[in-house]
Design brief:
By secondary structure, the protein is an alpha/beta fold. The chain is built from eight helices and 16 strands. Strand 14, helix 6 and strand 15 form a beta-alpha-beta unit. The structure holds ligand 0WD and calcium ion (CA).
Length: 344
């Protein structure tokens, strides 16, 4: 994307140096049949505790408790005094995923892989969040990104590098923005319980170091993928389908008062919500709509499989096939570019 200091993939042909291969981000080039995307399979999970320590288990799993249709959650409660914020200047890169791989090598090796072969049976290892950014690239006009890639034993590892613009934004957040970032986590606390048979505890501390992450394997066209993503909670019914089908993604968004606001939700927010949950096979997003004072006034469930129908009535809207085809072509591009097997 056009990030003038660091990246030039959006360059037009006349600006492009002859020796620099590029991949266009123009939407029209990706409007073809939906590529093969295999049903994502959960191959494991891990947890990060209140001190951001890694555990090779599901101890941080939470259980969704359906709130009222018209709740009155005060998302500002606890911002001053019951909030432990993760240090977002710490660069974790792929470390937690790599810890999971090292602890679970045996689960990943196919029958064809002998003990002597150290190669992983996948083409790409990355965070789900990085793939979300790839999927939305043809429609993203504001934020650029920078991804680093290294090839090691035939597998390509993709990890994000913060752009100068993103770092500037992080350094210059307003107090209002800082507080609004808390609202999403507070909403999780109002709707999630620690056990299948307990209730949420909004009087507790919100600690954003804590996370439960799923690790899934899938295939996009001819690219075998292994990625991890943070999961907010699961259906508490013990008879619910197996992961990832029982998972629920939670979101907060500004209250919708006009048709124009509804249209904007469809055109911009649902793109990000769809991409993020479609990738790991999470079937539904539960949204809490809040007013300007941070009070959740209504709730709505969005089924990922129905989002493409919802947006069909919008003029000049995003298309799932463009997102997936761009991602697939990007991965082919990376395979052709990062040819030297050298982890450094
Ligand atoms: O090093 C990096 N650049 C990043 C590391 C960027 C993004 C995430 N991470 C790591 C963290 O270890 C985090 O636990 O990945 C984990 C989450 O990964 P993901 O699922 O691939 O990320 P994404 O889909 O962007 O975000 C999922 C949730 C967010 O929920 P909402 O509803 O806001 O999309 O993870 C949280 C947030 O709750 N989150 C993060 N947590 C820790 N560090 C981060 C982050 N940088 N970004 C989002
Ligand atoms: Ca969420």
């Amino acid at each position: 994307k056009p990030n003038h200091h660091q990246h030039q993939s959006g360059a037009t042909p006349e600006q492009k140096p002859l020796s620099c291969p590029s991949l266009s981000t123009r939407r029209e080039l990706y409007e073809r049949d939906f590529p093969l995307y295999k049903q994502p399979v959960e191959v494991g999970c891990f947890s990060l505790d209140a001190e951001r320590r890694f555990f090779n288990d599901s101890r941080q799993m939470r259980y969704f408790v359906e709130p009222d249709r018209n709740p009155n959650f005060d998302l500002r409660d606890g911002y001053k005094g019951r909030y432990v914020k993760r240090d977002d200047s710490v660069r974790e890169k792929l470390d937690h995923i790599l810890r999971w791989i090292v602890a679970n090598r045996s689960k990943l090796d196919s029958s064809a892989t002998t003990a002597s072969s150290r190669a992983l049976d996948v083409d790409f290892v990355t965070w789900r969040g990085h793939l979300t950014k790839l999927l939305t690239t043809p429609y993203e006009t504001r934020e650029g990104w920078l991804l680093a890639v290294t090839r090691f034993s035939g597998t390509l590892y993709i990890s994000e590098v913060e752009t100068e613009a993103a770092q500037r934004e992080r350094d210059n957040r307003t107090e209002r923005h800082e507080e609004m970032m808390y609202w999403g986590y507070k909403f999780e606390q109002y709707t999630c319980a620690d056990n299948p048979d307990s209730l949420p505890d909004p009087s507790g501390v919100v600690n954003t170091n804590e996370a439960f992450c799923t690790v899934v394997q899938t295939r996009l066209a001819d690219h075998r993928l292994l990625f991890s993503g943070e999961v907010d909670c699961r259906d508490k019914d013990p008879d619910a389908p197996a992961p990832p089908a029982c998972y629920v993604e939670l979101k907060t968004s500004a209250e919708i008062c006009t048709p124009k606001q509804r249209s904007n939700l469809h055109r911009f927010k649902l793109l990000k919500w769809w991409a993020q949950s479609f990738l790991p096979g999470v079937p539904r997003v539960v949204a809490g709509f809040r007013d300007h004072e941070g009070v959740v006034v209504s709730m709505e469930t969005f089924h990922i499989s129905k989002i493409s129908h919802l947006i069909k009535n919008e003029y000049n809207c995003w298309k799932p096939t463009v997102c997936m085809n761009f991602c697939s072509d990007f991965m082919s591009f990376v395979k052709h570019m990062a040819t030297e097997d050298n982890p450094r």
